[in-house]
C-alpha cells in the first residue's frame, strides 16, 4: 500500500482519479482551485470497472433523526480561498478579493515561505482550515455526542463535542471546536487558535483571535454543501466565506507519512521554521542555531 511522503505521491486508483503532486512549499503561489474527483468503481457486467457514481436519494439519518454525515468525502483542493473554481463554481466559490485590513495586507505581503520557511515544510499541523483545503479525503464519524474529522493529510484528526459553549482551553493548532445543529445543518464553531497556521497554501493569514464557523448540509445521499466563514478582526475588515461541494467516496483514507523522504528539509533546501518568539533550534556539534525571522 502506498504511503504519503513529504512530497506526496499521486493518489492510488480506487480513491481518486486525479494524480496530485503537492510539495510542501512549491505551491505557495498557486492561484487556481482544483476539485478532488472520485474515480473508482465496482466491476461492471462485462468485468471491466465501471466509473464510480455517488449515491442518490435522500440523506441518511441517525436514530435521533439528524442527518448522518458519516463517510469518506472527496472535496476540492483550495490553495487560495479567494478564488472560485473556473470550470464549475458549484464545486468551490470564493469571494474573489479578501477584505484585508492594513495589518492583514502587510502580513500577507510579508509572507515568503522560500525565504522564511513555512510550518508545513516542517510537517507541523496544518490547522483546521488548511487541512480542509488540502487535496486529500476527509472521513467523518458521528454519534449523538461527538463528530470526528479524520484527515488523510498527515493522519491528523479532531473530535468535536456537541455542546452549547466553548470550554476554557490552551491555544491549539486546530483550535477548540464545538458542534451544534441549525435545523438539519451541522455547525462547527472553532476558537482558541495558536495563530501559527495560515488559511491556505497561498498564505492568506489568520490570527489567534479568529472565529471560524463551518456549516455542513447533506443535500442528498452523495453530497455535502459546505460553507466556511472566517471572522478575524485582526486581519480582515469584515467576515467572509468560501463555499464548496463534498462528494461521497467509495474509497478509504490511507496512510500519509510527512517526514518520510522529507529530504528537502533534512538537506537544507526547505528553510527551518520555528514559532514566533521561541528559542531557535540548536545545531548538534555547536553550530549556529537555526532560526526563523521573528514574527514570520
If you had to describe this structure to a student in words, what would you say it looks like?
8% of the residues lie in helices and 22% in strands. The longest helix is centred in the middle third of the chain and has 9 residues, at 102-110. A hairpin with a 3-residue loop joins strand 3 and strand 4 (146-151). It has a domain at 71-266. It has four helices and ten strands. With 296 residues, the protein is mainly beta. Strands 1, 2, 3, 4, 5, 6, 7, 8, 9 and 10 form a ten-stranded antiparallel beta sheet that branches. It starts with 70 loop residues before the first strand and ends in a 30-residue tail after the last helix.
State the gist of this model.
The chain is mostly beta strands. It is 8% helix and 22% strand. The radius of gyration is 20 Å and the shape is globular.
Broad structural category:
mainly beta
Largest sheet, in brief, is: 10 strands, antiparallel
Low-confidence stretches: 1-44, 291-296
Give the helix tally.
4
Amino acid at each position: 500500500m502506498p504511503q504519503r511522503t513529504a512530497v506526496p505521491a499521486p493518489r492510488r486508483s480506487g480513491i481518486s482519479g486525479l494524480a496530485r503532486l503537492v510539495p510542501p512549499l512549491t505551491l505557495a503561489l498557486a492561484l487556481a482551485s482544483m476539485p478532488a474527483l472520485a474515480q473508482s468503481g465496482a466491476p461492471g457486467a462485462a468485468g471491466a470497472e465501471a466509473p464510480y457514481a455517488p449515491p442518490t436519494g435522500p440523506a441518511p439519518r441517525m436514530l435521533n433523526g439528524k442527518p448522518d454525515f458519516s463517510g469518506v468525502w472527496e472535496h476540492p483542493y483550495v490553495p487560495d480561498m479567494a478564488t472560485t473554481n473556473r470550470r464549475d463554481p458549484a464545486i468551490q466559490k470564493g469571494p474573489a478579493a479578501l477584505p484585508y485590513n492594513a495589518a492583514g495586507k502587510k502580513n500577507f505581503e510579508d509572507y515568503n515561505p522560500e525565504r522564511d520557511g513555512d510550518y508545513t515544510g516542517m510537517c507541523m499541523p496544518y490547522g483546521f482550515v488548511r487541512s480542509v483545503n488540502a487535496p486529500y479525503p476527509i472521513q467523518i464519524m458521528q454519534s449523538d455526542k461527538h463528530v470526528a474529522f479524520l484527515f488523510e493529510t498527515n493522519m491528523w484528526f479532531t473530535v468535536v463535542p456537541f455542546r452549547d459553549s466553548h470550554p476554557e482551553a490552551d491555544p491549539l493548532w486546530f483550535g477548540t471546536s464545538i458542534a451544534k445543529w441549525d435545523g438539519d445543518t451541522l455547525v462547527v464553531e472553532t476558537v482558541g487558535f495558536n495563530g501559527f497556521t495560515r488559511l491556505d497554501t497561498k498564505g492568506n493569514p489568520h490570527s489567534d483571535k479568529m472565529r471560524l464557523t463551518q456549516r455542513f448540509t447533506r443535500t442528498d445521499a452523495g453530497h455535502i454543501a459546505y460553507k466556511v466563514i472566517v471572522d478575524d478582526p485582526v486581519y480582515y475588515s469584515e467576515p467572509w466565506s468560501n463555499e464548496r461541494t463534498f462528494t461521497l467516496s467509495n474509497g478509504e483514507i490511507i496512510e500519509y507519512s510527512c517526514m518520510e523522504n522529507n529530504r528537502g528539509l533534512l538537506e537544507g533546501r526547505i528553510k527551518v521554521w520555528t514559532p514566533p518568539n521561541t528559542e531557535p533550534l540548536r545545531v548538534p556539534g555547536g553550530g549556529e542555531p537555526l532560526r526563523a525571522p521573528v514574527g514570520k
